Structure formats: structure tokens, C-alpha cells
Amino acid sequence: MQTSQLAAIPNKGAAVWLTGLPAAGKTTVALAVQEALHNSGRLACVIDGDELRRGLCSDLGFTEKDRTENVRRAAEMAVYLSKQGIITIIALISPMRLQRSSARSLHGEAGIPFMEVWVSTPIEVCRQRDPKGLYNRYNQGNLHGLTGMDDPYEPPDCPDLVLPTDTMTISEAVDAVMAMLHKSGIL
Amino acid sequence: MQTSQLAAIPNKGAAVWLTGLPAAGKTTVALAVQEALHNSGRLACVIDGDELRRGLCSDLGFTEKDRTENVRRAAEMAVYLSKQGIITIIALISPMRLQRSSARSLHGEAGIPFMEVWVSTPIEVCRQRDPKGLYNRYNQGNLHGLTGMDDPYEPPDCPDLVLPTDTMTISEAVDAVMAMLHKSGIL
Predict the structure, then answer these.
(1) N or C: which end of chain A has fewer CB within 10 A?
(2) Structural domains in chain A?
(3) CA-to-CA distance for A1 and A3, rounded, in angstroms?
(4) For the segment B47-104, what is each residue's pLDDT rounded down to a tens digit?
């Protein structure tokens, strides 16, 4: 039954995993990619770190253990959705290489294509943007454990795509993601 | 941006929450409803208790606390998906009224329609079906904490729909769910 259901939906599931510093532009890119996919008639769903923190992962804190569990749940949710033919776009700091490689493995075991996209905006630009005031709160001593400042961020060693949103427009970023999906046979 | 995305997808999110004993037929009904929705061109996603246990909730056990957390995560996942215009069909024992009313509240706060469907197959029929051998393992003393046997199941007080799968076909059950969704203005 599962097969015929998926056959009814002209869509191959996959995961586009956006990693990067706070304020790098992950959510903005994710929503724009989702819109492009919807406009192409594809099923697409954004899994956003901030939203997860308010809902599914509201029981978790910011210790390394809890951050790893946060990434695990995002990955499990992505696998679950991809299995149903949905392209998931994950916007999640996911600071550590090991967390992201675990996410990749989870997808691999399920036969789901997984593309790691590094939203590589430099921290100086992220600090200037600061839409949520995180860097400001950190500077004032009111926030600890901010990734990129007093908490580590490990850039991807070998990302499938790099999006420096300080030197490219959102539209160019979307085009690059869509081109990657085409090249990978997802679209 | 979110609004225009959803407008591009001709679908209103909602949750169809199937509760009932083990082997009551929840997953079977859920997959058949999903197929019917897909065939109608609607976005639909099944959130299945057994699959959650293997993935998103693999860190949880079967204490009352863990069962409640299991239901909470399923509800959060359903809300998240429904917000993106997807109709979610949740197949989850969710044995306690309080768990299900919490799930309903989470949806209500997000403005997502929530329909509680009691898959009311009597335990005698569930024990005969026993596709996963749970009741058999219980009878042999190899399983403890089986809902409906040595763990409680609280039937819904006021379900939106009752599906006695011992006296109705899957096709009739699907028709009943689709009629409910039409009546509620979801379809």
C-alpha cells in the first residue's frame, strides 16, 4: 500500500540539511527553497531549529548532550517525512560534525538522499544582522553558550553545497539549491 | 512568505487522531485514509506509533512518564506538519484521556482542527488478530505493560468519530473519516 501511495505523489523524498552559525540565514533560505519547491508542485517541509525548540524539543536545554538529542530528533523527523515522499529542508545550527554525520547516516540507512549545505556567512556578518538579538545579549553578558562565540562550531569538511549569504542573494541561494536537487536526480 | 507558500498548496492542515488498543487497526485505517487523501490531491502524512518508537522516540521506554512524552512528541510533530498545510493522521494507542486532551490543546493553541477518532475494536478481536504477537507474548508471560491487559486504556468520552473495525470494512472506515473531514470543512 505504501508504494502505491508514494506513486500517487510525484515526489522523491530527500533531505537538504542547512548548517551554519546563528543568523547565517538558514531559515530564510529554507523558507525560500520550500516556496520554490511548492511552486514546482513538490511536497516540501521546513524543519526549523527555533520552531523545534518551542515544540518537539521544548524539553531540551543547551548542554552538549541535549544539543545532540536536538539534532537527532530533527534528523529522525526528516527521515520520517522523506519516507513519505516529502523533501525536507532542515534549518538547524547543528554545530558538530559528528551530529551531522549521524544525521547523514540515519538518512543513508533509510535510503534517503541527504545533502549537507553549509550556510557559510562569516560571523562578523551574522553579528551585524543579529535579527534575534542573540549576539547583542551575548555581548552584554546575558547569554552564554552561543555557537560561534563561546560554544564551538565545526564547519563541514566536505559539504554538498556552500551558500555564503553575505555575497549572494536569496534568489541565487535558492537557484543553487534547486540546481543541486536537479543534479542529484531529486527533481 | 509563509502565507503565500500555503496559498500555493490547496490544502488546509488538520489532525486526525486515531486512538485505540494494540491491534485495533489504527495503522491500517491511517494508511488507507492517507491513500484516499493523496488520491484526492491532498497533502497527508501518517504519524505511526510503532515507527515513532523506532525513530524519534527511540530514547523512550514505557513508564507512564515516557508514554506521556511519546504522545507529546507525536502531537508536536502533528502540529508542526499541519501548520505547513499537511493533514496528519496519527495512529497511536495514546491510552490516557489526559494525554489526548493535551494533544488537542496543542492543536487548538495553533489553530489546527483536531479530530479524535476512537478505533473501538473490542479487545477480544484485537487478541485474535494479534499481528505483532503482543497479546501472545503477554499470555506467555514475556511481555508486561500491555495496554488493555495489565496497563490501562481510557476510551474517549466524546470522540468525533467511532470506528468499530470488527463490524465495518476498511473502506467504510475510510469513507467515515473522509465524510468527517468534509463535514468539518477540511476537504
Answers:
(1) N
(2) 2-182 (3.40.50.300)
(3) 5
(4) 999 999 999 999 999 999 999 999 999 999 999 889 878 899 999 999 999 999 999 9
Residue ranges of alpha helices (H) inside chain B are 2-8, 26-39, 49-54, 64-83, 97-109, 123-129, 134-139, 170-183
> Taking an 8 Å Cβ-Cβ cutoff, which residues of chain B contact chain A?
1-2, 4-5, 8-9, 31-32, 34-35, 38-39, 43, 45-47, 51, 55-56, 58-59, 69, 73, 76-77, 79-81, 84, 86
Give the C-alpha separation, A127 to A142, whole Å: 15
Tell me if residue B94 is catalytic. yes
Smallest CA-to-CA distance from B39 within B78, B87, B75, B74 is with B87
The neighbouring-strand residues paired with B15 are B88, B114
Note the ipTM here: 0.81
DSSP element (H, E) containing B141: none
Mutate one of B40, B80, B86 to test the A interface: name it (highest A CB count within 10 A): B80
